[in-house]
Design brief:
With about 475 residues, the protein is an all-alpha fold. The protein contains 19 helices and two strands.
Length: about 475
Amino acid sequence: MTDIATSLPGGETRPPAAQPLGVRGWLTLLTLCGATFMTGLDYSIIMVALPEIGEDLGFASTSSLQWVATACVLPTAALLPLCGRLSDLTGRRRLFLMGVGAFTALSLLAGLATSPGLLIAARAGQGIAAAAIGATAMALMTTVFPEGPRRTKALSINGALLSLGFVIGTIGGGVIVSGLNWRWTMLLLVAMGALILTGGLGTLPRVGGRTASSLDVPGALLASGGLFALVYAVSTGADAGWSAPSTLGAFVAAVALLGGFLAAEARHHSPLVPLRLLNRPSVKWSSLIGLITFGMCGGTTLLLSLYMQDVLGWSPLRTGFGFLAEGAAALLAGTLASRLIGARGTVPALVTGLTVQGVGTAAMVWLPAEGNLPLLLVTSGAMGLGHVLTVVAFITTLTSGLPDEDQGVAGSLAQMPQFVGAIGVAGLSAVATARTAALNGSTGETTATLGGLHAAMLTAGVITLAGLGLTALLRRRLGAEHTRP
């Protein structure tokens, strides 16, 4: 029997009652979620190990050491749209397995690296492979699990694990570096990659893909170059200076290339990212909401790490455990999201998620210099809970109502806010730095640092709550789209 969706006010639809995923469905879901968890884990687990890597391999400076992280992020962000369209040409299952296999091999190379150049090259390769995994895992999820309650449940679990990857990476990285050495952070990824590759070969069906007639080469070059320049400017601006020629040049190049990309897409017969897709209200406005939730949560998580280490004086390992409430809340949100969306629809879920995240983030302004563990756990937990609710709801909105031939591109668009959200990290860091500098002359160093962190946390909360205006706009546009003949 076919389930019938229930209409909600404003043109939105509520999914029918949930159905069990089944054994094969769970194995498929674990494989796909495990892949996105692995790529998320990769970033946070290496961050904890950076000081030991610098000492072991002899990096010349801190600025050169940051390329161990940046070299992985840049190609992932730049190549997501290309990989989304390539999955439509070559087959999503094939590209996913190629991505996992390459990521596993390159993780082994990174773990065995004997020089800074070899490690950075391996990390760049991991970033390319992660782009293939990110785009195809989401596309496979939205084609294997049809639109409705099973897809919502799958996206809920994926959203929870994606956020949990940071927490587990921070804790796991601290434990591994304390007990073994940094190379085991990469070797752990090798073991995970091998398991995921085995699961993919055994469970993933041959669905979707091979629908695009040709590859939009000009669009691919313009989009990849523009995104690379944007993320490069954001990632290196803090160290090089926001007014430095390299930073300003990268921003100008990003605007020019992305503008050229939009112009090229309007003329190409088989565009990399069809403008009709970008102009859909469900894609356009939910992507902006995704950018807000990722940017403000990622930036605030960095602020919390600075608070625990620079203000409270905690060790990196203890700081990792300080994020346990955020991780537990992410898991809870993964179970609540599908029920909330099923009961009330995606827009109310977005409103709930942004409200909880915004209030929890803004309340961090009361975190004291001497520490208040209950307040830290409550506020960070609220932020994590609201963030995952928002992530699941915006991805569900973005991928709903699209034909199968667009799911590859939609999967890459759904992943994009996670990387472009680095703009939020840079912006909040700039707010904290400016406020700290303003207070330095009139108060102590710790108090000035805390004042800067408070200003940035309050800013993050206000911006998140301001995102509620986009949900009202989204509701109206979805209603107009639903009633249009």
